Amino acid sequence: MTNLKLPDLERFMTLLHATQKVKRVSRRPGETNSTNTAEHTFELVMLCWYIAGVEKLGLNHEKILKYALAHDLIEAYAGDTPAYDTEGQKTKHERERNAFEKIKAEFPEFPELITTIESYEDRDDEESKFVYAADKLMDPLNCSLEPKSTLWKELDITYSDVRKYKDSKIAQYPLINNYWGLLCEKLEKNLAFYFKE
């Protein structure tokens, strides 16, 4: 006897498919197509695993991977809200809260997913702070790898805009903040390439 029936599996797969349909503004270096939330999630999971494993941080890897896997699942229903979309930012909290309520209602049989999302959003442990900071580092890291033209330049995002949005968020985990400092040093050596300013 199993707990899950075929319709349950199909329902969960539909949620996963919805995350693959959410287009983001970000893209992989050297490409013109935007990534989707599932691709972004894969990059974050692997980046977090890589950093936590190599740096031997003593963090709980299972929690890290679960946080990274679940961190943007609500975008399946709320959509992605780009950092510099001032209009979208006004409704982001409400849309994401409603999306989370929908996931809770659709998957009551999966309380572990619900508590993982809640714990990530609360950021009350080192693992969630680590994943949150790494998530905020990832898009600038990708932009810094652009070979010809950056998204920042194309969208008229200034270096000061990036620093204003990212600094306090990335500072939530000191090691990731150290990487951010190194990345900023790289950007500052060639601001004219990365930004219009």
Automatic annotation (TrEMBL):
InterPro entries linked to this entry: HD/PDEase_dom, HD_domain, YfbR/HDDC2
Reactions catalysed: a 2'-deoxyribonucleoside 5'-phosphate + H2O = a 2'-deoxyribonucleoside + phosphate
Domain HD/PDEase: 33-150
Top EC class for this record: hydrolase
Any one Gene Ontology cellular component term annotated for this protein: cytoplasm
EC number: 3.1.3.89
Protein's UniProt keywords contain Transcription: no
Protein name: 5'-deoxynucleotidase
Keywords: Hydrolase, Metal-binding
Pfam families: HD_3
Subunit structure: Homodimer.
Cofactor or coenzyme needed: Co(2+); Mn(2+)
GO molecular function terms attached to this record: 5'-deoxynucleotidase activity; metal ion binding
